[in-house]
Write a structure and sequence with these properties.
- Strands 1-2 form a two-stranded antiparallel sheet.
- The chain is mainly alpha-helical.
- The protein is globular, with a radius of gyration of 16 Å.
- It has helices at residues 4-18, 25-28, 38-58, 65-69, 81-99, 104-107, 122-146, 159-162, and strands at residues 110-112, 119-121.
- It has a single domain, classed as Four Helix Bundle (Hemerythrin (Met), subunit A) (Up-down Bundle), CATH 1.20.120.
- The model has no long low-confidence stretch (mean pLDDT 92).
- The longest helix has 25 residues, at 122-146.
- Helix content is 57%, strand content 4%.
- Strand 1 (110-112) and strand 2 (119-121) form a beta hairpin.
């Protein structure tokens, strides 16, 4: 059985994707200052997934360019949306191989995050990433509203079926 926090991350990812259905390449590259564009947000979350689950957990960095182009504080850009989704999909698939094995004990393990003086637990990083997805899901909705899109998702999807509450006794 998948760890409950991993289920929540998967749900946040699916809502992030759902919120971007129907966005064209040109729209994904449009910037409404001071926000980044949608395609940058996809690259940014690819960077964070890679950083936490591949680089920190496994010393594997399949897309080193994500570190320069999409890290926190990286310069704004308007990358190709299809390229960003390819990176995001590949990083997510690789990350899921580890996340699918995560246990409470593994998530309690500490790691040193580059650029920080303290350590973090992998569980805290999992929470941080999940919340980060929700932040950018909202930001992307705001961008889509600025683009004039209508009929957008207006609330969280089917949480009760896809990511219901699981008691703490779950793995």
């Amino acid at each position: 059985m998948r760890h409950p926090l991993v289920t929540q991350l998967r749900f946040a990812r699916s809502e992030f994707r759902r919120g971007l259905e129907g966005v064209s390449e040109a729209e994904a590259r449009m910037r409404f200052l001071p926000m980044n564009c949608i395609s940058w947000n996809v690259g940014h979350l690819s960077w964070q997934e890679q950083r936490y689950w591949l680089t920190l957990a496994h010393a594997d960095t399949p897309y080193p360019e994500l570190n320069e182009r999409f890290a926190f504080g990286a310069p704004a850009s308007t990358p190709d949306l299809d390229e960003m989704w390819r990176c995001w999909n590949e990083v997510s698939v690789r990350a899921d191989r580890w996340l699918d094995t995560a246990t409470t004990e593994m998530l309690a393990g500490e790691v040193v995050v580059p650029g920080r003086q303290d350590t973090r637990t992998l569980g805290s990083l999992l929470l941080r990433l999940t919340y980060h997805y929700w932040y950018h899901t909202g930001e992307n909705a705001a961008i889509r509203q600025q683009l004039g899109h209508t009929g957008l998702p207006d609330f969280v999807g089917n949480l009760d079926t896809e990511a219901p509450y699981q008691p703490e006794s779950a793995p």
